[in-house]
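Renewal narrative, Specific Aim 1. Our central claim is that a sequence can be written position by position from structural information alone. The example that follows is taken directly from our test logs and has not been curated for this report. It begins with the structure tokens describing the chain, in the order in which they were read.
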């Protein structure tokens, strides 16, 4: 074996180690060119970050961690949530051992839960390895009955990255929107935050080069980054160096609040799933980051088919500017999902919805960003015996989806049911599968069986004192596997 071949093997092995995979293995399929297809193998390590849940002494926060059982994954592993604190990290290093975990999961298929109270709850960093890594998900849900932003604030803890889009942010006088930047690494991250209003960029110099120290979380009030108040903004967060998890927490004096997750990457067609059937107001916010304006067809996938909202058949989005339109009670008493597609030339956009339930002084809001399809599998944790609603939308052709309820955090046996979603419709499931003998909370795992792509969202509702408290989480693919390219053919060529 010559030195070139040895070098190539070293590169391939190193790639496998970096991406968190075992060495070669998997299927023996071929691609269209006749070369060996990439094998899909379970990830061996993953990380998630949970933002600081609240600054209110009245807050009650629950966490649920879960990994679905997966064939091919390692038989053993561990998943932990630890406070993101430099002091704890330094102390752990000095003592040559880890700080005490807030939450530990040891077995796939069995969710675990924990709680925090008051304003002292920290941001959390989570790592999972071995059999706990593929599809690991953590739900953070906070409720507080009084004060600005009162209501239910829920979010999926997210993986660190370098680029995020947040259409639907605001610096209006009745809103307090904070961007939470959390750095899991041993070196500082340098972050730029840009804000785009209806006439273009409105960012002040404060948004440049925000320092996020190692193992720390930084909340930044958006109104300090803009030159004046704007009702509808799009925020772009990018890392000059390092990486962070980013999420926006929005609080409104009258309308409650929730977490605004990042939109999926810019695309010419978008799906925003899971608008509650009793939504009293829906606002669409979109942004075109490229050099071209975007003209979008606006459609609602209802339970019976795709319809066009009267008076809001299309939306023109100027390049580099945020466009917003109030769709009112667009669902008309039926659950739905919004579909955006180009009317002519495809132009990538990002988008999100602000959804309001209730009336008068008893209103509550949540956000639904555009999301990618379920893909191979998606999971959402933190479901209770009541209050969970699952929404499935098949924007193209009909699809069948298997939904599995895990065991409960305190007991119960898994249950499974398969649903058919007709093309161009939204299927609302107000009573998704529950574990037999459920105690505690549980997770729902979605796996498409056949048909076209499916997008999904889960609504948690907890009415209190007449206020329809709720939160919505979208369910993109859990990225539990990654393709590892086959190298046998190239090695054979080099050996000649």
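The sequence written for that structure reads:
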């Amino acid at each position: 074996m010559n030195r070139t071949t040895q070098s190539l093997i070293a590169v391939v092995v190193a790639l496998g180690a970096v991406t968190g995979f075992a060495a070669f293995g998997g299927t023996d399929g071929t691609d269209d060119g006749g070369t060996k297809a990439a094998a899909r193998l379970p990830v061996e390590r993953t990380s998630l970050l949970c933002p600081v849940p609240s600054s209110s002494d009245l807050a009650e926060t629950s966490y649920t961690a879960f990994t679905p059982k997966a064939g091919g994954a390692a038989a053993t592993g561990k998943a932990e949530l630890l406070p993101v604190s430099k002091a704890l990290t330094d102390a752990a290093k000095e003592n040559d051992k880890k700080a005490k975990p807030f939450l530990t999961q040891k077995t796939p298929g069995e969710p675990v839960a924990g709680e925090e109270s008051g304003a002292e709850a920290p941001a959390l960093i989570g790592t999972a390895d071995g059999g706990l890594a593929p599809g690991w998900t953590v739900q953070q849900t906070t409720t507080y009955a009084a004060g600005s932003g009162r209501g239910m604030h829920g979010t999926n803890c997210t993986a660190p990255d370098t680029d995020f889009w947040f259409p639907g942010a605001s610096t209006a006088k009745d809103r307090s929107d904070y961007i939470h930047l959390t750095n899991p690494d041993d070196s500082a991250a340098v972050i730029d935050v840009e804000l785009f209003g209806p006439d273009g960029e409105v960012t002040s110099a404060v948004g440049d080069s925000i320092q996020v120290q190692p193992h720390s979380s930084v909340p930044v009030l958006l109104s300090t980054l803009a030159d004046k108040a704007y009702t509808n903004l799009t925020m772009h967060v990018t890392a000059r160096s390092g990486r962070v998890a980013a999420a926006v927490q929005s609080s409104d004096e009258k309308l409650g609040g929730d977490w605004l997750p990042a939109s999926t990457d810019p695309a010419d067609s978008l799906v925003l799933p899971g608008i509650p059937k009793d939504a009293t107001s829906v606002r669409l916010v979109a942004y075109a980051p490229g050099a071209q304006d975007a003209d979008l067809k606006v459609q609602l996938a209802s339970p019976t088919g795709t319809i066009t909202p009267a008076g809001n058949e299309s939306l023109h989005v100027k390049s580099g500017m945020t466009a917003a339109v109030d769709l009112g009670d667009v669902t008309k008493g039926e659950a739905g999902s919004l579909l955006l597609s180009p009317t002519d030339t495809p132009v990538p956009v990002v988008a999100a919805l602000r959804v309001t339930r209730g009336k008068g002084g008893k209103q509550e809001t949540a956000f639904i960003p555009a999301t990618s399809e379920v893909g191979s599998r998606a999971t959402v944790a933190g479901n209770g015996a009541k209050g969970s609603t699952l929404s499935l939308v098949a924007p193209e052709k009909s699809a069948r989806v298997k939904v599995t309820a895990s065991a409960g955090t305190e007991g119960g046996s898994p249950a499974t049911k398969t649903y058919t979603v007709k093309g161009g419709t939204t299927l609302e499931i107000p009573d998704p599968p529950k574990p037999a003998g459920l105690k505690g909370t549980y997770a729902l795992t979605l796996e498409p069986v056949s048909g076209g792509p499916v997008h999904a969202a889960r609504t948690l509702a907890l009415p209190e004192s007449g206020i329809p408290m709720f939160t919505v989480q979208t369910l993109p693919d859990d990225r539990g596997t990654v393709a590892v390219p086959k190298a046998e053919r190239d090695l054979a060529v080099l050996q000649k």
